[in-house]
Every structure is written in structure tokens, then in C-alpha cells.
């Protein structure tokens, strides 16, 4: 049923919409950024916490992973039908929440360096203690569009 696929995307877009100006997503993001700054000593949001989180509840997955560098990173993924308008709305909403919660971030960086024809958009937000990234990726072979949120500690100097 098409409505069942779109419903989670609409809930995410509504939950993250900038006009709401809820402090709750900022509280969650700040906690994750603080955990990233400490290299996620206790992992990320537990699955039961994610289910009740306005920011993360519709994510297909959220997990702490270890990068090649050895640093731990927190990743969340939202999955949509290929080129779904709701995927772009979710991407825009996540970026809006980051702008709202961390207005004094460093310059937003974009990266288009991919070697395949699928669409890709990345926004990176440098903070003092962590970097946040939101990406939108179309995967034609899978007929899916993904929105990813990544939070990782900043490089040690």
C-alpha cells in the first residue's frame, strides 16, 4: 500500500520541520554530538530509545560503527522509494534541524566526488567536538533513495 511507505517519511518531515522549533531534536543531537566527542563510550541511542525519538524513530537503522581510522561513528539511515519526494523533504528537514540546533557551526562543506551516475548530495557541518553529515543518495540498481546522518568526533590535532 503506497500510503504505508510514505507515512514514515511524512512523520519524519513533520517531526523535523523547522517551524516546529522543538527543543527535543536539539537535545537529542547535542547528546549524540557530546557522545561523539567522547568517541561513543556507551554506544549510540539504544533501539528502544530510537523508537521513541522524534528525530530518529523512522530510521531504518542507527548504529555506532568503527571507521578505518579507529574512531567510532554514529550512523542512521532512512530508506525511501527511488527518487521519492519524501526523501528530499527528510534530507532538507535534517539539515534544517542541524542549522537550528548548531547555528554557530563552521562553514558547511559539500562533496560531490562520486564515480557513478546515481545522484548524491552531502552536507557536512563541522563543530568543535564533532562533525555532522547528512547525505542523500539515489541507488538506481536498488530502486531506493537513502538519507544518512553521520556523527563522528573531530580529528584529534
Number of strands: 6
Radius of gyration: 15 Å
Order of helices and strands: HHHEEHEEEE
Fraction of residues in helices? 25-40%
The average pLDDT is 80
Report the end-to-end length measured between terminal Cα atoms. Answer: 51 Å
How are the strands of the largest sheet arranged? 1-2-6-5-4-3
Q: What class do helices, strands and sheet pairing give?
A: alpha+beta
Number of domains: 1
Shape descriptor reads globular
Strand proportion, as a percent range, falls in 25-35%
Q: Could you list the spans in which at least 5 consecutive residues all have pLDDT below 50?
A: 1-22
Major pleated sheet: 6 strands, antiparallel
Query: Helix tally?
Result: 4
Which key features would you list for this structure?
alpha+beta, 6-stranded antiparallel β-sheet
Explain what you see.
With 157 residues, the chain is of the alpha+beta class. It has one domain (2-81, 90-108, 121-153). The protein has four helices and six strands, in the order αααββαββββ. It has helices at residues 2-16, 23-37, 47-51, 85-101; strands at residues 61-66, 72-81, 109-110, 120-126, 130-139, 144-153. A six-stranded antiparallel beta sheet has the order 1-2-6-5-4-3. Strand 1 and strand 2 form a beta hairpin. Helix 2 (23-37) packs across helix 4. The longest helix has 17 residues, at 85-101. The chain is globular, with a radius of gyration of 15 Å. Residues 1-22 have low confidence and may be disordered.
List the helices and strands and how they pair.
Blueprint: H1 2-16, H2 23-37, H3 47-51, E1 61-66, E2 72-81, H4 85-101, E3 109-110, E4 120-126, E5 130-139, E6 144-153
Antiparallel strand pairs: 1-2, 2-6, 3-4, 4-5, 5-6
Amino acid at each position: 500500500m503506497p500510503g504505508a511507505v510514505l507515512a514514515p517519511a511524512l512523520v519524519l518531515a513533520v517531526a523535523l520541520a523547522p517551524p516546529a522549533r522543538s527543543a527535543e531534536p536539539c537535545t537529542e543531537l547535542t547528546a549524540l554530538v557530546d557522545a561523539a566527542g567522547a568517541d561513543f563510550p556507551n554506544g549510540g541511542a539504544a533501539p528502544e530509545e530510537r523508537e521513541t525519538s522524534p528525530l530518529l524513530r523512522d530510521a531504518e537503522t542507527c548504529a555506532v560503527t568503527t571507521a578505518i581510522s579507529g574512531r567510532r561513528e554514529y550512523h542512521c539511515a532512512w530508506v525511501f522509494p527511488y527518487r521519492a519526494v519524501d526523501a528530499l523533504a527528510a534530507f532538507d528537514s535534517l539539515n534544517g534541524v542541524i542549522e537550528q540546533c548548531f547555528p554557530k557551526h563552521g562553514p558547511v562543506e559539500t562533496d560531490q566526488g562520486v564515480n557513478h551516475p546515481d545522484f548524491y548530495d552531502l552536507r557536512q557541518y563541522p563543530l568543535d567536538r564533532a562533525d555532522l553529515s547528512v547525505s542523500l543518495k539515489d541507488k538506481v540498481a536498488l530502486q531506493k533513495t537513502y538519507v544518512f546522518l553521520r556523527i563522528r568526533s573531530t580529528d584529534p590535532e
